[in-house]
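Shipment paperwork, digital attachment
Item: protein structure file
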Amino acid sequence: MPVMECQSNGKPGFKFGESGTCYTYTAGDDTSKEAARTKAVDQGKAIEANKSATFDIVKTDNNNNLAFGWAYVAITKEGEQVYDHSGEFVSDVDSLEMAAYAFNLAYRKSGEIHIGDAKGYLVESLMVTKEKLAKLGLPEDALPQGLWVGFHFPDDEVFAKVREGRYKMFSIQGTALTEEVID
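Attachment content:
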């Protein structure tokens, strides 16, 4: 995906792809413009580097229509910030943990590509943090910091899409407060 021009709050900017964060600059200020373009390029590099293994479904149980994997990874086990497929990130693992608990208490269901009635039901959830890894006697770099989930899909037709690889990853549906990050 290329770096694209964008606007945010009436200011020109650059972003990586269609959904990246718009990094604004002051019109007529070449230094500011180049800094915004550099941020968009850096965001693109981070997104591309993180695409390979962060949110994929990594285990299925075909006999019981179960799928398991990372719903969201905030920090890799190497300590690197993860940018999601929208170019956004969660810098505060505690906030992700509270959102995970709210989801578990209030929703526990999965639609099909965020559309329609529930097709999957949460059966497993583990929010991995440094503190929990320590309590388990594991080194803090044993796993990424994020939300691991398992879902049961009672509808064989929907689970077939998981099994066939048409649905390859989990995606958290919801709303969040976002803020522009300025270096």
